[in-house]
Every structure is written in structure tokens, then in C-alpha cells.
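User: My collaborator sent over this chain with a note saying "see what the structure looks like." That's all I know about it. Can you take a look?
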Amino acid sequence: MLPVKYIIENKDLVIDRLKIKNMDASSIVEQIIRLDSERRELQHQLDRELGELKIISRQIGDLFKQGKAEEATLAKEHTVAIKESGRILKEKHQDIDGQLRELLIQLPNLPHESVPPGKGEEDNLEVKKSELPDFTGQSLKPHWELAASYDLIDFELGVKLTGAGFPVYKKQGAKLQRALISFFLDEGEAAGYEEVMPPIVVNEDSGFGTGQLPDKEGQMYHIGVDNLYLIPTAEVPVTNIYRDVILKRDEMPVKNIAYTPCFRREAGSWGSHVRGLNRLHQFDKVEIVQVRHPEESYKALDEMVAYVETLVQKLGLPYRILRLCGGDISFTSALTYDFEVFSAGQERWLEVSSVSNFVDFQANRLKLRFRDSESKKNITAHTLNGSALALPRILAAILENNQKDSYIEIPEVLQKYTGFDRIEKP
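Assistant: Without extra context I'll predict from the sequence alone. Here is the result:
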């Protein structure tokens, strides 16, 4: 959330930068400035009346001591009127606070200056691309056909048990899934990330803290009876560990890694591009989260991008890195890099990771701060997160890119986790 003070002091900048996210924020910004002015005036009136009330209260005691009961009674009646006026002012103040909050949560994070303009994913900027293997002359199958012929994943059984988008992993398919989770967690630990295992349901405060609520409410599964939400990513519970926390400077940087199942409604998704593992309602993901000093967050973003790149390289998957444009970047992010791997059986790119710097946007919502050792002031921290990695499309790419005539080859880095180096037809 953007601080009111920042919006007022940088009105033109806020309006200009949000145009990159294809938003005309001028009306909302003007309303915020007007409401903040009204709120400040009300606060001044409240402070004046509180001061007057204290003075009169002291005078009443003196008047009674002096035997001036009639004057004291009149003064008490005046305090009743002041208190009633104060009550009305407080109600108006609270009402304006509510209006301000509703406006503030409509403003997305300001995009970094390097975010390119654009309407959607077709305008994202490719910043790096690995060399593609030569698949010329090969008749390659998509992963859903491979999953069926090698008896690895049962999509129809998932439909029976739950519905579309909830696959059942079987036999070596289940082991490969577990191997990927263990590989990603071990790599993260080696890179200095501390593992946590958070809940997979969160409350409204957690959803608001990281910006999923109210922006993505329609994409989240809601447990109505308990007013809880199934998490769309481990980013939500892990980052909220630090909600309402003041860290010590020597406790930073915070680096966490977590594996969780993730749940997304993906309302309105259909067509061949969502077939098989391409888009699911339940999927597994390993997430990395960092809390950093404001001066270090963009350096940390570069480090996280480099780290995710090592993962796809070790898996031997062709990949590319994209800097998201203003029309494709999320509501909460200031700068995001997406990783896509090439799907040989489908002949298309599949997104497998987003790595983002939210600067202080989430931290303002979370009230996440750290105590500066020199100034002794509490400073708002910066938060970052990234998929490291999301499993379904990684698994799809592994199956498609490593298929041979009669078997599927397992990447070498996974073989110590799977216990086998290939998958053969049953």
C-alpha cells in the first residue's frame, strides 16, 4: 500500500508511474489528498476540544473549592456539549479513515522505472534466452499423452475425486514429483534459505497483508464457515510470519523457503493451453521469500533471479527470462521477472516462475519494520518472493524434453532422489 504522505508529496509521479500499469489514478489521488486534508482538520478540531476539555475539567475542581457551585455546574454542562461534539468529530474522522483506506487499497504498487509499457504478455521484454535443442525430425508427444502411456498421472481419476484441475500422480510420476520438491528444498538450503512449513489456509488479515485480498479474491478458494482461504502460494503465509513485527537490523536479511500445495480457482480458464499440467487448481510449489533493507532489495532481486536460473539450468531445461510489462505485472509488484521453459511436445513456452520485488508495498500493509542500529528509528522493510519452482509445468517439460523412443530420461540431478534414471513403459 502506498503511504498517504508519499502520495501527497509525489502526486504527479504517482499518477505518471501508474500509467505504466495502464491505470488513470488522477481521480483517486485527488480524492485521497482531499480526504487527508479533511481528516487533518478534524484531528485539529479534536485536539483543540480535548485540550479545552482538560482545561475546563481542572477549572471545575477549582470552582467547587472556591464555593462557586453554580459556575461549576455551568462548566460541567459545557463539558457535556464538548464531549458530544467530540463524539461527532470522532465518527466523522473514522468515516473518512474508512473512505481513505478504500481508496488506498485501489492503488497498485508503483512500477520500477525499468518496467516496459505494454498491455499484456505479448509486450513483455525478453532479457535472456538459452539455446534451444534441435528437435528436428523427432515426433514428440505432449506430456498428457506421455503421462497416460507411462501410467504416471491420471487426470480422469482426479476429475472423479474432485474435478478438473486436480490430477492424481501415480507410481514413478509421484516419485518424480516428490524428487522435484526435495531437490528444490535442498538447493534452497544450500543457497542460504531457511526452510519453514506454514499452514496452507490463511485468514483475511494474511490475504490483505500480501495483497491477494481484495485484488485476487475471486481467484482464491474461500472456506465460508470459518472465513479462511486456501493459499494460492506460500508467499502469503511465509511473508505474514513477519506481519506486525519489528526486526532487529542483525536479523536481516530474512531468507525463507517453503514447500506447499497451492490452490487457485483459475476462473474462466479453458482451451488447449490449459490441458494436462498446464493449468491446475491444485499444484505443488517451492517458494523463496526475502525481507531486505530498502537499499538492498534490487540487488536481492538480481540474486534471486540468478538463483532460479541455476535451477532450470541444473534440470537441463531450455528457458528464457522475461521482464514483465506494465500490463502484465501484478498489482503488488514493482518489478517482476518471469521464467519460462520450452515445452518440446507442445512447441510452446510455459511459465514456471515469477520473481518479484514488492519494495515497501506489502510491508506497509503488514506493518513490517526493522530497527535501524544507527538512527534507532523503525524503518519499513522491503519484501521479495519467487517461485523456486512451480512443479506442474517443470514436470511437463521434463517429460516432453527428455522423451526417447521407449523411455523417458530423468535429469541427472534428480536421480539420487528418484532412485531411477529412466521411466520405462509398463
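A starting point for your reply to your collaborator: Residues 243 and 366 are 5 Å apart (CA to CA).
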